[in-house]
Design a protein that fits this description.
Two copies of one chain form a homodimer.
Chain A (H helix, E strand, L loop, with lengths): L3 H13 L8 H11 L6 H11 L9 H21 L4 E2 L2 E2 L1 H4 L2 H19 L6 H28 L6 H26 L4 H28 L2 H4 L5 H4 L5 H9 L2 H11 L5 H14 L2 H21 L5 H15 L4
Antiparallel strand pairs in A: 1-2
Helix pairs in contact in A: 1-3, 2-6, 3-4, 3-8, 4-6, 4-7, 4-8, 7-8, 8-9, 9-15, 13-14, 15-16
């Protein structure tokens, strides 16, 4: 069995080794730039780990893992442009370092490149299942990004709408990365589905944790300024719950703060106080634990020895207790 | 044998019949909008015609034809945004009717949808060849768009660079649409390549004809204002030749006109006069005829009865003499 660290290292090396056409440089250089920014390659590593639950030759899962990582970075390239983000992993985003047209076109080329990696597998039912999973997941992620953008201008987003959005935008990719490893290793359909479920639940828990850390994280440990989501009115789990669960007076106050853009410290303080009053930290932690429990129960359904599953349960537990 | 008109009708009907998810509407409505704008669906019709050279059941080629048409419209959605185009087939472009983010994201969803249509075919070597052709062609078209954008700010584009750009941006798709029909019908590799060559040559001839009509077309017949390319300094075959073949004095004058934006009529008149002086219409017509000749010679290499080829030679001839 390979460890999670082994998987991360293998994936990073394979990404470094990708060969791009030399010309046109402006089409391919942004792809290499984004793929090689520092940052853990968790998703493709999950594909290798899932494959490794059933088969030893993890090299066989590398092209699938690369397809996911290239796809994921394609979504980042386009999303950063749509979201007007200047930085990605501490470095300039592609549309900032080059320009918007470059981000659009290099992103398109990345999506095509991801399919090229997928098509390296032999033509059989395994590939049929991988292709279907890949395209369905890719389309769902577009849907998630679309909902996320729509939520920006809405103040009536319901909690289940929010959870559905993060399922589409974030969690289905985690589930699909895991499931694809099981498909490649020819695991039972039941195991494939269990891994997918595990990934979905971990993915949702991860995103709620992310929302929580933005407000309640330790700034020194978290590595970025606390309250960033509050300042840009991002519809996080906390904000959506606050908008749904406040009394009329608190809600009016909250909506007023959403229109304030020139008092960052006061805005963070006031919104956090409202979150405190509504006990949203507790609510979020309860949700995270609930999804964590679902994830572990999904693993129980698998036909894989408990000790082999440890790599996944450990990962889930680390996630639950992460502070960054 | 089906006629070209039959093929166009069949494709248009199948495009109308595409079923999209209802939600999120803002992701899927722009796809249906763009795909159903009036306008001939020539490329997917070529797939059906090529298939029909070897097999009768053209319905079997419909999913491939749809994949190409969806892919082509994905490139239009993104290119129109990159090129700041307001109109497409006389209607608002997607980024104008909705907004930029919608054009990016719906375009992404279209590219994924195109692959979904491709993946409807059984998993065998035919699909392997289709997938490879599709991804290689798609990447080349991105490269072509990249070169086209780079040419906007260059005045030293060489004629062969221009021809390579239109090969990538326009011609490879025509070649690939034809070749895919032959692949699906299990035609000989030699025939597949001959159809691809035919398409490449017709595609390049088509684009040069397009450049020519912008300057020398009949405004009433052409349906759009003559000189549009001149006004926006588009690097057409004519402008590239003019920049390469003028004496120093004419070139200086031409470069000066490129920086003029407030005297449209005078600019069109002056640039056209320079084209006349350099006899560029004659040169362009000679090029078109040369590519037309190449195209017909490519068909000669095919293992298909001459009378069956008529539908393609007729199409090529109509193209050569088209006035719109």
């Amino acid at each position: 069995m390979i460890t999670f660290e082994d998987a991360l290292t293998l994936v990073s090396q394979k990404i470094k080794d990708i060969h791009y056409p030399k010309q046109p440089a402006r089409l391919y250089e942004p792809i290499a730039y984004l793929l090689n920014l520092k940052g853990k390659k968790i998703r493709p590593a999950l594909t290798l780990l899932a494959y490794n639950l059933y088969a030893d030759d993890v090299q066989k899962a590398v092209n699938m893992a690369l397809a996911w990582e290239i796809f994921h970075n394609f979504t980042l390239m386009h999303d950063d442009m749509m979201d007007l983000a200047d930085l990605r992993r501490g470095e300039l985003t592609v549309h900032q370092k080059w320009d918007n047209n470059t981000a659009i076109l290099s992103g398109d080329a990345m999506l095509i490149l991801a399919y090229k990696y997928l098509a390296k597998y032999p033509m059989n039912m395994v590939l049929k299942n991988l292709l279907d999973l890949f395209s369905i997941t890719a389309a769902e992620i577009c849907e998630g990004q679309e909902y996320d953008m729509q939520f920006e201008t809405r103040t009536d987003v319901r909690e289940e709408e929010y959870l559905n959005m993060i399922r589409l935008k974030t969690a289905v990719l985690v589930g699909a990365c895991l499931k694809s490893g099981a498909i490649l290793a020819d695991a039972d359909a039941k195991d494939q589905d269990a891994l997918y479920d595990f990934g979905i639940n971990i993915g949702i828990a991860f995103q709620i944790q992310d929302d929580l850390l933005d407000v309640y994280g330790n700034e020194a440990v978290f590595g970025k300024k606390i309250g960033g989501d509050i300042l840009c009115n991002k519809k996080t789990f906390l904000l959506v719950c606050a908008l749904n669960n406040s009394d009329e007076q608190s809600k009016t106050e909250l909506l007023q703060w959403l229109s304030v853009h020139d008092q960052p410290d006061a805005k963070i303080k006031a919104v956090t106080e409202l979150y405190d009053k509504l006990q949203l930290k507790k609510k979020a932690v309860a949700q995270i634990e609930s999804y964590y429990g679902n994830a572990l129960r999904a693993l129980d359904k698998m036909n894989v020895a408990k000790d082999k599953q440890t790599v996944l349960t450990q990962l889930a537990t680390e996630l639950l207790h992460r502070t960054v």
